[in-house]
Amino acid sequence: MLVLLTALLTGLVLTGTAHAAAPTVTAVPANAGKGWPVSGAQGVLDLTSRGYVEEEYLLSGEADTFTQTGLWTDDGRWATRVASTGNPYTTRMVVVRPSDPARFTGTVVVEWLNVSFGVDIPVDFSQSYEHFTRQGYAYVGVTTQKAGADKLKSLDPGRYATVDLSGDALSYDVFSQAAQAVRTDPRLFGGRSPSVVLATGHSQSALRLTTYANAIQPVRHAYDGIMIHGRAALAAPIGDGVLGPLSARIRTDLDVPVFVLQSETDVVASASVRQDTARVRTWEVAGTAHADQYGLDLYNAANARDRSLNDGAPTTCDKPVNSMTFRYAENAAFAHLDRWARGGAAPPAAPPIALLLNLIVVRDGDENALGGVRLPDLDVPVAAYAPNNSGGNVPGACLLLGTTTPLSPARIRQLYPDHATYVAKFTAAADRALRAGYLLRPDRDEAVARAQAAPVP
After folding, report:
1. pTM of the predicted model, to two decimals?
2. Distances 311 to 147, 198, 400, 415 between C-alpha atoms, Å
3. What sequence ranges are listed for the domain Alpha/beta hydrolase (predicted)?
4. What gap in Å lies between CA 143 and CA 90, rounded to an integer?
């Protein structure tokens, strides 16, 4: 009785266990509606050649909402309680898995799809699908917020007529129930069950995952590891119409590891909550932008198919978009998080990007950032890579897409008198990054092959 009373007083009694009632998972017929998942890979990536298939499911159930208990301080040790129960919902999950179940390694990456521009965007899949498909991971993209659900219904009512999320207050429990479905429904992975389930989310989704890690994961225990990609110092609100904390570190008493992965665009907005602890690792990747050309190429192709933004027109900016190879660092980060979540070694630490007064990125003579995770394309540069752009046909997008400004021919000649010099320097930089753990062997080999084929000088 004393234990029960204590739990009631602290507001944790209803959130100490996973949901009792499992959500219902229903396959979406491949030819439903327009015949493809909105924001999915069909017609954008050749999954077949990689030995993968894309399938879509509806996830239905009753979700809880939560409210804050006590003062939420910047150490992230936040208490919460259930505010309401029995809220019906139906959402969708996009599953990308090996077509041969024997290839599935047991690792599932579940992405909180980003809705910053009013439509689901699978940012982390777009950066790391090569790693996922090389390694035999499965991927699940979850429509977790109302904006994404509403857009699905407007873009393809024939496919998503029953999708309904009444508000973002449901998002935290919906995301927990997605993990529950992943663990308990082997049909999602060709009859195989996962051994590790990792959460990931970028930008706006990263702010919600910050709140999830601090307030929901400790009581729902849904995930084995969390990737928070492109966060600012603040965290998302726990309920609708509630201001989230303005400063939020990741709590250090979690029983699962958290990897905070930051681009150069993100560091000024997050410098006040930098941390590296026994269960939290932070990488800041120099020369990179919050979003980049590699991801934009996939977004533009999916948008041309779905006509989600600007009637399908590609996103443009005033200057060439950042083309730094952020994906290499993200691939390595996922490999480290997978091992860490399985009880292996923590990822290698990395120096932060150099900041002056936590406000200004310190740069070299070519205007590239100092410090941080160093990729070979930055240590042996042919361009200056900046974190922000301007203009464009999608309001707010270019601010996040960064720029690429080629170095002058004279500077290129000064750095690399001949092609052999360029290749030798690039290869040495790639090998340094490989040894440091910032680059995986397949990406190292791809990068070196690019350098060998590049017309430099």
Report:
1. 0.94
2. 18, 34, 21, 44
3. 29-448
4. 10
Give the H/E segment covering residue 404.
strand 403-406
> Which residue type occupies 57?
Y
Question: Burial of 41 by CB count in 10 Å (0-12 exposed, 13-18 middle, 19+ buried)?
Answer: buried
Q: Which of 124, 125, 120, 117 is nearest to 50 (CA)?
A: 125
Q: 427 with 435: CB under 8 angstroms?
A: no
- Residue 409 in any domain: the answer is no
Residue 109 CB partners (closer than 8 Å, separation 6+): 124, 125, 128, 132, 137, 138, 139, 140, 198, 200, 227, 334
Q: Which of 433, 388, 407 is nearest to 292 (CA)?
A: 388
Assess if residue 295 is contained within a domain. no
Judge contact between 137 and 109, C-beta under 8 A: yes
- Each residue's pLDDT tens digit, 369-427: 999 999 999 999 999 999 999 999 999 999 999 999 999 999 999 999 999 999 999 99
Q: Is the backbone peptide bond immediately before 457 cis, with ω within 30 degrees of 0?
A: yes
Classify residue 194: in a domain, yes or no: yes
Distance CA 353, CA 398 (A): 22
Decide if 257 contacts 380 (C-beta within 8 A).
Answer: no
Record the tokens describing residue 93, joined without a space: 């999950």
Helix (H) or strand (E) run with residue 126 in it: helix 123-135
- The range of the structural domain enclosing residue 87 comes to 24-256
333 φ/ψ angles, rounded to the nearest 5 degrees: -60, -40
For residue 186, the tally of other CB atoms under 10 A from its CB is 13
Look at the chain and report how many structural domains it folds into: 1
